[in-house]
Design goal:
mainly alpha, Clc chloride channel, 3 domains, 20 helices
Length: 507
């Protein structure tokens, strides 16, 4: 049984004891239920009031939402405030860690062989520690964490231990701050889910309400990571729960708004990528934006399949997890020594692409390098997400297509920087399978509202490629991988148990 399973079996704050009355007098109870247990006073009242002769309705009601809209909204706002504070400070700490990393790499370039050793060893050690924390303290903290949150929200997994919060916080700082090409959004989403779990257990919410609050916490986490409240809410509704139900929508929007207010105070309200206002697109620009969407669709297909096949190789390997993470960290250190801005989440690279900086050949080299780094960093199995590395790839790909189109058709091709913005959203749409989130997130991060029409067209083209070529959305694929690993681990535990029992019997 996994740690998370132990956690929820021991009590997830669901309130399984909601129907229990401590110190009850059962001497006058009515006829017993099918299990032979006498009816409690509360159960007798429910039976009399509803006219049900079976208690199945009451047992099922424990899975139904019980909070009215007012306490639900208040609790969701509390989740948003808590997540906004914690995730904002995670973001601030990560900025300091990245500044420290840049300083270390800059120092190492002027200190010969000692500098080279420091540049390689430091990221390797941080990656090893991050992987060890995940493996030995909280295995569900590995990688993105978004598939885990999605499984919890859908009722297919149990809420995790409260220790996930500090492990995800510290592990994310080590892995991303050390230079791995991972995103800050995933630790933030997991932090939000942890805050919701803590509050849900404190107020003894039932299972349905707890899952709803966890969804709200996930939205608050993504909101804080990118200062994008609408994108945080839309992502949860479009990708995690895949429905726009009234209670869920209210909770998610309330938490996102509260988290954004905290991020505004702690981090600031500037766009993540502050850009000048792009030129309004013309009708004859349409085919070029569609080309960006089609190319991004194939890139998303390649990214998803490469990542999943690499993870399959890693899962089948017996190579020590910590040693693999250390080797990946050392390779990142070599890249960071050569170019400090090439490692980490890659926001500076994304900004350069959105500003139209670079030549086709240089951008192609960066695209290939960051693609390899993104895949390699994720298989280190340390805390970290996919959003930020994916945005780098999309922006660089869009800029490459834009520069080529502008060279071939200078009179009608749109500004290459505008095509970089569109490419960022389109690649996200193809890989994640969430086109609305992609265009909303891109718009909130850049402020390029004028590009909404080409964003719609490009995301539609990218999704067309993903659907035609049967590209499974990346978080769905990661969720299936997690389920397979859980089943495999359970089978291995059962096999070891059987062998131990057999050996004991033979003795």
């Amino acid at each position: 049984m996994t740690n998370s399973e132990h956690d929820t079996k021991g009590g997830d704050g669901n309130g399984d004891g909601n129907g229990d009355v401590s110190g009850r007098d059962t001497s006058n109870d009515a006829a017993p239920v099918a299990s032979g247990r006498p009816l409690t006073r509360r159960e007798r009242i429910i039976r009399w009031a509803t006219g049900y002769h079976s208690l199945e309705w009451w047992n099922e009601a424990k899975e139904r939402p019980s909070m009215s809209m007012v306490p639900l909204t208040i609790t969701a706002v509390m989740v948003g405030f808590g997540t906004g504070i914690i995730a904002s400070y995670f973001r601030v700490c990560l900025e300091h860690a990245e500044a420290w990393r840049t300083t270390v790499f800059g120092w190492s370039q002027g200190h010969g062989i000692i500098g080279v050793i420091v540049a390689i060893v430091a990221p390797a050690v941080l990656a090893i520690v991050g992987a060890a924390m995940v493996r030995h303290l909280e295995p569900v903290a590995e990688g993105s964490g978004i598939p885990r949150v999605e499984a919890i929200v859908k009722g297919n997994a149990n809420p995790t231990h409260m220790r996930l919060l500090p492990i995800k916080f510290v592990g994310g700082l080590m892995s991303i701050g050390g230079g791995l090409a991972l995103g800050r959004e995933s630790p933030s989403v997991h932090l939000g889910a942890s805050v919701a779990t803590i509050l849900g257990r404190t107020y003894r919410n039932n299972r349905a309400d707890l899952r709803l609050l966890i969804a709200a916490g996930a939205a608050a986490g993504l909101t804080t990571a990118f200062s994008a409240p609408l994108a945080g809410a839309v992502f949860v509704l479009e990708e995690l729960v895949k429905r726009f139900e009234a209670r869920m929508t209210v909770a998610v929007l309330s938490a996102s708004g509260a988290a954004y207010s905290m991020a505004h105070v702690i981090v600031g309200d500037d766009h993540v990528f502050p850009l000048p206002e792009p030129a309004p697109p013309r009708l004859d620009n349409g085919p070029f934006f569609l080309v960006v969407g089609l190319v991004a669709g194939f890139a998303g297909l390649l990214y998803n399949r490469t990542l999943m096949r690499t993870l399959a190789v890693v899962d089948a390997s017996t190579f020590p997890v910590e040693l693999r993470a250390g080797m990946i960290g050392a390779a990142i250190g070599v890249v960071g020594y050569l170019g400090p801005n090439l490692v980490g989440g890659g926001d500076s690279l994304t900004m350069d692409a959105l500003m139209g900086r670079g030549t086709v050949m240089v951008l192609l080299g960066l695209l290939i390098l960051r693609f390899i780094m993104a895949i390699g960093s994720y298989v280190a199995l340390t805390p970290g997400g996919l959003f930020a590395p994916m945005l780098v790839l999309g922006a660089e790909l869009g800029l490459i297509v834009g520069l080529v189109c502008h060279a071939l058709f200078p009179q009608v091709a749109p500004d290459p920087s505008a095509m970089a913005i569109v490419g960022m959203a389109a690649l996200f749409a193809a890989s994640v399978g969430a086109p609305v989130t992609g265009l909303v997130l891109t718009t909130e991060m850049t402020g390029a509202v004028v590009l909404l029409p080409p964003l719609l067209g490009a995301c539609a083209a990218a999704m067309f490629i993903a659907v035609v070529f049967k590209c499974r959305p990346i978080y769905d694929a990661l969720g299936l991988r997690s389920a397979r690993n859980v089943a495999k681990n359970a089978a291995a535990i059962e096999e070891r148990t059987q062998r131990a029992m057999k050996a004991e019997h033979e003795q």
